[in-house]
């Protein structure tokens, strides 16, 4: 349709799928929602699946390695860790070698889509 057409004409184009287009529900994310506009969804989600934050370890500039775009909202804003080793920045108070361990934890989760549902293993760092 040409610009300025009447409002009672249907809007049709060659695309079979239209995205929601609202802002992503993650407040710090600038991307638009890519979920179908004609389906109900609890939160708007963009195309990014990883955490967009930097590692919270002091002086680390690497990105968080968690594969969940919304994990900081679900965990209360904590827990952004990269997958690189870090040297302890503090003076050890006990004899021996000081080490920091970041442990991967596998949690069972369920995906429910429009046509199917399945269980999968979600990997998180603790």
How would you describe this protein?
The mean pLDDT is 81. The termini are far apart. The protein has 126 residues and is mainly β. It is 3% helix and 14% strand.
Q: Whole-Å distance between the termini?
A: 54 Å
Order of helices and strands: HEE
Q: Which radius of gyration do the C-alpha atoms yield?
A: 21 Å
| Content of β-strand | 5-15%
Helix content: under 10%
Provide the low-confidence segments as ranges: none
Shape: elongated
| Biggest sheet layout | 2 strands, antiparallel
Q: Which descriptors apply to this entry?
A:
126 residues; mainly beta; 1 helix
Topology:
Elements: H1 71-74, E1 104-112, E2 117-125
Short description:
By secondary structure, the protein is mainly β. Helices cover 3% and strands 14% of the residues.
């Amino acid at each position: 349709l040409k610009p300025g057409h009447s409002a009672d004409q249907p809007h049709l184009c060659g695309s079979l799928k239209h995205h929601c287009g609202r802002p992503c529900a993650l407040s710090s994310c600038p991307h638009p929602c890519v979920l179908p506009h004609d389906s109900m969804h609890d939160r708007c989600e963009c195309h990014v699946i990883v955490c967009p934050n930097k590692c919270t370890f002091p002086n680390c500039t690497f990105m968080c390695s968690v594969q969940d775009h919304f994990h900081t909202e679900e965990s209360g804003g904590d827990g952004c860790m990269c997958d690189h080793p870090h040297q302890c920045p503090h003076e050890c108070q006990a004899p021996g070698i000081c080490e920091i361990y970041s442990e991967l934890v596998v949690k069972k989760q369920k995906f429910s889509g429009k046509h199917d549902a399945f269980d999968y293993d979600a990997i998180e760092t603790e």
